Amino acid sequence: MRALWRRFACRFLADEQAHILIIILVVALVAILGFGHMLMPLFAAMVLAFMLEGGIKVLMHWGLRRFPAVLLVFFLFFGVTVTALLLLVPMLWDEAVSLTVSLPLMLRHSQMTLLRLPHMYPHLVSNRDVENWMHVIQGQLGQLGQWLLALSPDILGHLMTLGIYMVLIPSLVFMLLKDREMIHAWWLEHLPMHRPALSRLAEVIQRQLYRYIRGRVLEVLLIALSTYLMFWVQDLSYALLLAILVGLSVIIPYLGAIMVTVPVMVVAFVEWNGITPHFWRILGFHAVIQLIDGNLLVPLLFAEAVDLHPIAIVVAIIVFGGLWGVWGVFFAIPLAVVLRCLVVYWPINQNCD
């Protein structure tokens, strides 16, 4: 056993670059676990700055100096983002208010439709089944109401936090972009001059994360747009709200598609008075979009970025989601990509017996 440990330590822990990497990982782990919620604006700003750096490099390649390129990319990105929010938020708010107002009517209509199911499908659904479903629905609605009542006193605090983030994150993004070279130089000063393994690891992580983030943004936009067009053509209520939910659901592979199908089914079920041809048409189009996403978009966009087994992806979502909630789910796949790169490209001492 001692010989095995000595061989392991000599192979994976004896290299100077491995020591530096361990220190970096320990510091990062302590920062995330101990101060993750406080540092979340910084993490979000780092992700945005990382995404925008590609556009800055393109402009610099065309001959523009870095600072003008930073200004152009920064104001273009946030200008487009603010404009999109100003256009989308009012429409989303109207749909959310309409959904809230219509919710009691939708619930009564759903109850009436459920009560008709034993007469429509006597061999599949019984009166006892409907009663059990009604009890479950009422219990879940009661829990939802209690959760909303408990959440309502904190709404003002959440809005204040959101307002602070909307000012803080763009400021951090601008500073990270503007001083990137200075931060990079300071970082390199504390690393050894000869660091081929660390340089290769950093290059691989940067390349794969950039491809993943770029692909995920494109996937969200394409899925949301195609879903909205499909719902709009079918004249489904709350098409924009549902389309954005479907688009954002791709951030959570496998599980997101399952979760977002439930509201689509509920709205379609209420919209067309039960399980009708229109209901099946909506589900059919929704299933086609999900199949295109899983079998065409994902292989095209992430073939070289995410080489993870589906089980590893689900485990990453469960673990990081359990640690940090929504933010953990959002960053689960990038963190899993980083862990895979660490395992594959860890500095190894080849001189061990």
Structural write-up:
- This protein has 353 residues and is mainly alpha-helical.
- It folds into two domains: 160 residues, no CATH class; 153 residues.
- α4 packs antiparallel against α6.
- The model has no long low-confidence stretch (mean pLDDT 78).
What key phrases describe this protein's structure?
353 residues, mainly alpha, globular
Quick description:
The protein is an all-alpha fold. The protein has helices spanning 2-12, 16-35, 40-61, 66-120, 127-151, 155-178, 180-189, 196-233, 239-249, 255-271, 277-302, 310-330, 332-344.
Count of runs of 4 or more consecutive helical residues: 13
Beta percentage is: under 5%
Give the fraction of residues assigned to helices.
over 70%
Order of helices and strands: HHHHHHHHHHHHH
Terminal CA distance: 16 Å
**Low-pLDDT ranges:** none
Outline type: globular
Radius of gyration: 25 Å
Mean pLDDT: 78
> Major beta sheet, specifics?
none
Overall tally of domains: 2
Give the class from helix and strand content and strand pairing.
mainly alpha
Task: Work out the number of β strands.
Answer: 0
